[in-house]
Each structure stands twice: as C-alpha cells, then as structure tokens.
Amino acid sequence: MKKLSDTYKKLGIGFTFPIVIRDANGWDTYYENGTGDLGKYEYDANGNQTYSENSTGFWSKREYDTNGNRTYYENSKGYWWRREYDSKGNETYFENVNGEKRGTPPSQPCAGKVIEVDGKKYKLTEL
Length: 127
Description:
Elements: H1 4-11, E1 19-22, E2 28-32, E3 38-43, E4 49-54, E5 59-64, E6 70-75, E7 80-85, E8 91-96, E9 101-103, E10 114-117, E11 120-123
Antiparallel strand pairs: 1-2, 2-3, 3-4, 4-5, 5-6, 6-7, 7-8, 8-9, 10-11
C-alpha cells in the first residue's frame, strides 16, 4: 500500500504525523505514523469494520449479519472461518479452513442447481 505521506511530499503539501483520515461517520479509514506504520480500513453502514490492511501487506475481510454478528472472516495468510447465528444471537454453526466444524450446517436451497443422471442434465425447481 502506498503511503499518503509520500504523495504529500511529492506534491509539496505540508503535514504532521500521525496522518488520520476519517469518513463522514467519524470512523478511521486511513492511519499513518512517522515510523512507517499505516493502516487502511473500510466499514459497512452499521460501523462494522469490513476490511483492514496494514503496512506489511496483511489484510483481513469480515462480513456481518443484520444483527451485527460477525459471520465471515478471512485474511491474506489464507485463514478463514464462517459462522451462523439464530435469532437470539447464539452461534448455530461454525467451520474454518482447518476443517473444524460444529453445529448444524445451514440448509442450502437447491432451486436452480443442475444435476446429471445417466448423462442427462436436469435443473432443479422448488415446489
């Protein structure tokens, strides 16, 4: 990730550290200090951090359900996990990249999927 301070220097714009940029909601979207540490951040409409990246190139992504429960996480090192919750916020399912699974897997709708039987393809429809 390119440093904003490098751009400021190139354009002759004066600045001091730390450089902090916030969005209209007041959430930090960029941070850089004088020792070379920096971060980039993104948020959803509810203020949940959905993306972050740092000066080493490490990044992570997150997803949330409508109740603000974190339902998905992945990072640049290949690690990921997925969770589902019931209406009371209790975890009902978990799985991760290491093959760990607990709870009841969510049902997957079959409508629109294609299957093949004896060389013929069929598209499933919901009744």
